[in-house]
């Protein structure tokens, strides 16, 4: 091509929760690694996604608790919270940058675009492109929010999940478009902060991609928080009066929901359309995802892809696990990404943790399965904090006497689901859980108690 290119042993494109663990693992295996990203170290998750959103959720819950207990309720200070967020994020990004430096991973700022199967151009604003010739590469470019054509982002009144976390004043009226996990998490947080929140969803219920049993306790809590949920609605636009939508079908009468801020939380799409994949002769599917082998390598190449640019749930922990597999595979190890389950978590109120089969999906797969459910109110720990909504459900393959699914809706479900994931991965019997002493009074006892129900039937 005529351009001078620097030789690179292993190139990682993207420094998010998939990219930086991949870079660290490759360096640990003796590879000379270059990590390229045009954003901040840590990617979306650490800087403007997972970490800031959970920080907001925790802050909102703390404020709501204080308001219940204090004689003089505190005011919301989102501008001050932004300082708190910046400090927390910087501590984590500095930690990641330190690990990369100690591992001798070279970090390059810029946007990588393939020019062939073994070369990328690194583009920076107002600078000529430079080129890297690599032996192996890992694509870890993540995803971005889906845009709705009738609701163009302006960063002020119409925002995405990044924009809503950057607000310095609390919107009096917030409308959330999309009742998936991102929309529900942020709707809950802002309701606790004091906004009047309305959720607009095109499908017939909230959390439409999850089992319906999760939606009911979450809907009850949202109602208690004063959140209005409108399902089966088609958004048609926005004007000075508010968000316009039609309930039912396109022929129905148009309605308006007053809104100071509209959050569009309609899903995410993989960042593969601006990578020059055609030049690398890498095809994507109809959703923009890169097909990969079990070791995460694109067939016929020395290029791997991980995280949100591949099939499967768009989850940070999936990307991390895939990144390690990809680094090992490209370094000559015989490995495969083959988890029995990947835990799904929603930081709603109550929280949701889900792993493995539901009773319905097990039967559809031809498995002889039974499910047992324990309401959260059966736990002594629930009484101590006034938890009233939620459950723990276990699904067991009765022929193998093996746990194949665990589903938790309640306080700390995001932490508790790891025990369920371990049980499914190990094909543990319910008796293995009942034979494990769980501390009292805790929410973890639910896993013991629901497993015990299989022993008496």
How would you describe this protein?
The mean pLDDT is 96. The strands form 5 sheets. Strands 1, 2, 3, 4, 5, 6 and 17 form a 7-stranded mixed sheet that branches. A 5-stranded parallel sheet has the order 8-15-9-10-11. Strand 4 and strand 5 form a beta hairpin. Helix 3 runs parallel beside helix 6. The protein has 457 residues and is of the alpha/beta class. The protein contains 13 helices and 22 strands. The longest helix is centred in the N-terminal third of the chain and has 25 residues. The chain starts with a strand and ends with a helix.
Brief description of this entry?
The protein is of the alpha/beta class and 457 residues long. Helices cover 32% and strands 26% of the residues. The strands form five sheets. Strands 1, 2, 3, 4, 5, 6 and 17 form a seven-stranded mixed sheet that branches.
Strand and helix map with partners:
Blueprint: E1 5-13, H1 19-28, E2 33-37, H2 43-48, H3 50-69, H4 78-102, E3 106-109, E4 111-116, E5 119-124, E6 127-139, E7 143-145, E8 158-159, H5 161-164, E9 173-177, H6 181-193, E10 196-200, H7 212-224, E11 228-230, E12 233-239, E13 242-247, E14 254-257, E15 261-264, E16 268-270, E17 303-305, H8 316-330, E18 344-346, E19 352-356, H9 359-364, E20 369-375, H10 380-385, E21 391-397, E22 402-409, H11 413-425, H12 430-434, H13 445-455
Parallel strand pairs: 1-2, 1-6, 2-3, 6-17, 8-15, 9-10, 9-15, 10-11
Antiparallel strand pairs: 4-5, 5-6, 7-16, 12-13, 13-14, 18-19, 19-22, 20-21, 21-22
């Amino acid at each position: 091509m005529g351009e001078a290119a620097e030789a690179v042993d292993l190139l990682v494109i993207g420094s998010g929760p998939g990219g930086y663990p991949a870079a660290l693992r490759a360096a640990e295996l003796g590879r000379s690694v270059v990590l390229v990203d045009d954003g901040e170290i840590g990617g979306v998750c650490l800087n403007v996604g997972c970490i800031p959103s959970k920080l907001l959720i925790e802050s909102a819950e703390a404020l709501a608790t204080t308001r219940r207990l204090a004689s003089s309720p505190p005011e919301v200070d989102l501008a001050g919270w932004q300082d708190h967020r910046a400090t927390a994020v910087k501590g984590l990004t500095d930690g990641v940058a330190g690990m990369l430096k100690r591992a001798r991973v070279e970090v390059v700022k810029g946007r990588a675009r393939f020019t062939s199967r073994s070369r990328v151009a690194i583009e920076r604003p107002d600078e000529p492109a430079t080129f890297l010739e690599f032996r192996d590469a890992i694509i870890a470019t993540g995803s971005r929010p889906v845009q709705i054509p009738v609701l163009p982002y302006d960063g002020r009144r119409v925002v995405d999940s990044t924009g809503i976390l950057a607000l310095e004043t609390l919107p009096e009226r917030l409308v959330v478009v999309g009742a998936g996990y991102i929309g529900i998490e942020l709707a809950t947080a802002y309701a606790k902060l004091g906004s009047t929140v309305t959720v607009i969803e095109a499908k017939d219920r909230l959390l439409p991609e999850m089992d319906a049993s999760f939606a009911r306790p979450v809907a009850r809590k949202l109602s208690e928080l004063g959140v209005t949920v409108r399902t089966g609605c088609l958004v048609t636009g926005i004007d000075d009066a508010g968000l316009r939508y039609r309930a039912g079908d396109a022929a129905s009468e148009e309605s308006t929901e007053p809104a100071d801020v509209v959050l569009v939380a309609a899903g995410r799409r993989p960042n593969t359309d601006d990578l020059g994949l055609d030049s690398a002769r890498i095809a994507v599917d109809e959703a923009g995802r890169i097909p990969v082998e079990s070791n995460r390598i694109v067939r016929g190449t020395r290029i791997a892809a991980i995280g949100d640019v591949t099939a499967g749930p768009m989850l940070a922990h999936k990307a991390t696990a895939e990144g390690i597999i990809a680094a090992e595979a490209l370094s000559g190890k015989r490995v495969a990404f083959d988890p029995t389950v990947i835990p799904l978590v929603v930081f709603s109120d109550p929280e949701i943790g889900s792993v493995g089969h539901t009773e319905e999906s097990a039967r559809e797969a031809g498995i002889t399965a039974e499910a047992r459910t324990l309401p959260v109110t059966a736990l002594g720990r629930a009484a101590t904090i006034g938890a009233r909504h939620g459950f723990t459900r276990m699904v067991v393959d009765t022929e193998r006497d093996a746990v194949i699914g665990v589903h938790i809706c309640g306080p700390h479900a995001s932490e508790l689901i790891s025990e369920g994931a371990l049980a499914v991965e190990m094909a543990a019997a319910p008796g293995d859980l009942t034979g494990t002493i769980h501390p009292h009074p805790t929410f973890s006892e639910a896993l013991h108690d629901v497993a015990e129900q299989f022993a008496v039937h």
